[in-house]
Amino acid sequence: MGQISQMLDLTPRAITGIMVGLEKQDYIARRKDQKDHRITWVQLSTRGRTFLKVAKPEASKAFTSLFDVLTKKEQIELVRIIEKLTDHMKSQIDEE
């Protein structure tokens, strides 16, 4: 869970809550490592893999059509602005 929380920049507690919800809906399966009980392994269930096969192309299509209205230059500028805002929000959180 620690690696996932670092990758997504969320607290381990938040990740655990998300994982509990995904497990209840049968999208993932969690299991403790047999040798090191501090480690929890997470894998997609059959339902989770099926969902991703369907959802990924649809999400990609929707995302692409959303940004088609912007020129390439505008898309680059939007990414720059979002990165700047993200960095600012992270610095605000670090100060707290």
Automatic annotation (TrEMBL):
Coiled coil: none annotated. The keyword Glycoprotein does not apply. SUPFAM superfamilies: Winged helix' DNA-binding domain. Keywords: DNA-binding, Transcription, Transcription regulation. PROSITE patterns: HTH_MARR_2 (PS50995). Residues 1-87 form the HTH marR-type domain. One of its GO terms (molecular function) is DNA-binding transcription factor activity. This is Unannotated protein.
